[in-house]
């Protein structure tokens, strides 16, 4: 099931916050990065619906949406005439 690994990792990170607060922030960061990576993969596969496992978890849902947005930005730059023009030092649209 799409998003299950990230949802389980979030639950474990929350438990870690209770048992070992020093490492909890690192664990949460990894979970967010994984959810963002899933959003990027989903975008490339044409999947615009977030995983059902993220529905009631704003941390996961927001990270997934950020991944979708990042992938869209990268796709735009990959097809941008300004970015692809070797005669321009910088793209006039993306910098």
TrEMBL record:
In terms of superkingdom, the source organism counts as Bacteria
Official protein name in the record: Uncharacterized protein
Q: Which organism is it from?
A: Burkholderia ubonensis
